[in-house]
Amino acid sequence: MSKPLSGKTALVTGASRGIGRSIALALAEAGANVAVNYAGSEHAAADTADLIRAKGVEAITVRADVGKADEAGQLVKQVTDTWGRIDILVNNAGITRDNLIMRMKEEEFDQVIETNLKGVYNCLKAVTRPMMKQRSGRIINISSVVGVLGNAGQANYVAAKAGVIGLTKSAARELSSRQITVNCVAPGFIDTDMTQVLPDEMREKILGDIPLARLGRSEEVAEVVLFLASDASSYMTGQTLHVDGGMVM
């Protein structure tokens, strides 16, 4: 079996479950050693690391709140201290604090912006220096379909995910001269813990807005991330790839 990422090292934030776990496993399957970042789910992160090691590569778990610059910096340092380099960064960590704007508390807005947008900035900034020294790197940021379309009751989440798309474009322009690519993946509604708790009525409405008429699978997002992490995407940077069943077209 082909191992296009053999010898590479990857850091996936928010990798203990859901889309992040699927991304970490896909990178490991392709031959990369993977650092599993988590904020609170220690046991789930350990399970993910065990699944990675079962694929014949190395894994470490690192607890860090990426929304805090010092913790994001220590996270990246631990990866580089362990393996000597960092080739792939996947900024996946995210939270939700849904509410209508008129009812949204300031802390609900700030918490989501801190993790979902500033967390991407913190980790991206932290890997910039080691990747520039290597003159190579792949950075993949996870946005969302709602960052393009908007969504009622998620102004904080939408603002953060839209910001991730803009941050991706700026970083791509800044880092391209050192052969570092920065791209973005915008998943649609994916079958995860978050969507499984939706009321039936809301779930039916969502399905009605998806041309392919089904929720996506986290593995389908992971395959697109794997493409962006590999040499197959070497002439792509600053792009946002939509994995949403056709919601944005």
From TrEMBL:
Highest taxon, organism lineage: Bacteria
Role played: Catalyzes the NADPH-dependent reduction of beta-ketoacyl-ACP substrates to beta-hydroxyacyl-ACP products, the first reductive step in the elongation cycle of fatty acid biosynthesis.
Pathway of action: Lipid metabolism; fatty acid biosynthesis
Species of the source: Paenibacillus enshidis
EC category name: oxidoreductase
Keyword Secreted: no
SUPFAM superfamilies: NAD(P)-binding Rossmann-fold domains
Chain segments annotated as coiled-coil in the UniProt record: none
Enzyme Commission number: 1.1.1.100
Protein name in UniProt: 3-oxoacyl-[acyl-carrier-protein] reductase
Pfam families documented for this protein: adh_short_C2 (PF13561)
GO molecular function, one term: 3-oxoacyl-[acyl-carrier-protein] reductase (NADPH) activity
InterPro entries: 3oxo_ACP_reduc, KR_dom, NAD(P)-bd_dom_sf, Sc_DH/Rdtase_CS, SDR, SDR_fam
Reaction(s) the record says it catalyses: a (3R)-hydroxyacyl-[ACP] + NADP(+) = a 3-oxoacyl-[ACP] + NADPH + H(+)
Keyword match Lipid biosynthesis: yes
Ketoreductase domain location: 8-192
Similarity comment: family membership: Belongs to the short-chain dehydrogenases/reductases (SDR) family.
Subunit structure: Homotetramer.
Keywords from the named record: Fatty acid biosynthesis, Fatty acid metabolism, Lipid biosynthesis, Lipid metabolism, NADP, Oxidoreductase
